[in-house]
Amino acid sequence: MTATDVQTGTIGVGADPVSPDSPAAEILARAKAVAPLLRQRAAEIESARRLPADLVEVLRGTGVFRMGFGRNWGGPELNSVEQTEVIEALSYGDAGAGWCAMIGSDSGLYAQFLDEAVAKEMFTSLDMVTAGLLFPTGRAELVPGGYRLTGRWQFGSGITHADWVISGAFIYRDGQPEPGADGDPHDSKLFIVPRADVEVIDTWHTTGLAGSGSCDYAITDIFVPEGRTVTFDTVRNGEGPLAQPEVHMRNMPGVPLGVARAALDHVREIASTKVGPAGAMADDYRTQVTIADCEADFAATRHAVYGALRRQHEVLSAGGTLDDLTADERAALPLSRRHAFRTARSIVSRLYDLLQTSSIYQRSPMDRWLRDTNTMCQHVVAQDRILQSAGAYLLGSKPSFALSLGVIGGGKKS
What we know:
With 414 residues, this protein is of the alpha+beta class. It is 44% helix and 14% strand. The longest helix has 33 residues, at 285-317.
């Protein structure tokens, strides 16, 4: 067994074997095939601070952007385990490209929360990309037939090549906050607009993950028909494992797992051939212990992610709901996701230290991976809010980010 066998999923960590001619196997094979190209062009991607147009088309050609569309659309309908494997394979090549693929592949997932006629009018191709920030920072004024949307949002990953932009906003009626039906003093929704109606603001000068192009963006007084609004508590067009409120978060661990695996393989290759004044690097005690420790953390973390996803899929594909998971099983989903981000950063940091001064040059991928993993760990799914939410749920209290558990409403465990 090689390190690459682990990265590519051929040993079946946490996932059921797939037929070699299945849509999932085909998309995964294409993702693995383009990873070396993404690695070759990683410095260019980072310098551009967005995905170059030709690489967007390379990703589109893998099928990654269509993997969330159901078979009723003619889509491949990859389950969440399979989707995560694809994102992991692409992130093994480049973190920015993997991040954009992860975000852009949500189009088919969002389509399930739209009326079928509206969704099919919007997504004329299964390979269309959706970007945007879901947290409600904009303002949507109720008008006949829909809303007038205005606001500025951060973190529009992939927005420079998106077809649609989805954004959270608070709702107002005649200038006053509109209360929610569930007693929320100020209701909010998600609003989807064509990319042409969005102004991209070039703010994405960051420590890492530069290639994701996660710029700020603004929308000014754009009419959004009621049909192009989304709430995760209402599935309008679909059923089954992917028609769930937290579905868009599930494949996110693929990015840190792919980067951690890439760093491990890189350092193992160096260690296997490098000979210095003190002898072969592979014979050095510190090298051996560091590699083994990182491999142990990677294996355990990857098993946790895929194990939680697999258990969720078993329940949902058998006709169950998220409420049929035990409290521990449900909490394992956001906890394993957060742990993947934090562990990837820890692995990269330890390997960076192992290589010492050779890591510090920009030509070294270790420099980029260190910055990428530190930046991605600032995302909400990798933050302490996840710990609070999972811990509160396990204790029968109120999670601050209930959606991370797939909980809609009050969030207390029944």
